[in-house]
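Contributing new records

If you add data, match the layout below exactly. Sequence lines come first and carry their own label; structure lines follow with theirs. Keep one chain per record. Anything else will be rejected by the validation script.
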Amino acid sequence: MLIAGATSASGEAVARELVGAGATVLAVGTRPEALSALAEAVPGVDTRVCDLADRSAVAELAMRIHLKFGNIDGLVHLVGGWRGGGGIAGQTDEDWDFLDRSFATLRNTSRIFYDDLVASPAGRLAVVSSTAVERPYAGGANYAAAKAAADAWTRAIAQGFGKEAPNAAAAIFVVKSLSGLESALAARVVALWSEAPSTINGVRELLTAPAGGENAPSDPARIER
């Protein structure tokens, strides 16, 4: 399994859950020191430094992964970040470039590893989206637009899976804020491999904290196919 943007709190939680489930986890990021910290926090994780916004760098990463591990069965995309501004006129080009770069990492990784997921007996792609896609506001127009693009891209992948790979699925987890939901996200990512692809492919699922505490079963609400 490959985690893109693995050095966040959510990346560590997902890596730990996947390793605990017996998966080989490849954690990718741009900061070597953060990846070293992740490897110490989650023993067994294989870390790789790569600029995922650079398609040629992703292609080289894929070549090295294929030589050592073969094809991957899962891609968890956690590259992101918030940028806001003051109304429509306050949406800066610098903020847009930052957000567009995040979207580029999804485009690059999903294009390069798409054939892996199609060929897998249980390929899975998971991304995190935002409630801002359905309820955008002026101060976060750049952010909402970038998230909407990522949503559309992922649902297009889901349509491709539906035609080419009925055993594969692309899932979108929707949050208002991911802070505090890292464990819930990790549990849902691992659960994707135990669910029928037809029930999760192209589904936008509202991610909520489990009732009864961190280790209680999640009760997600699916908000849109």
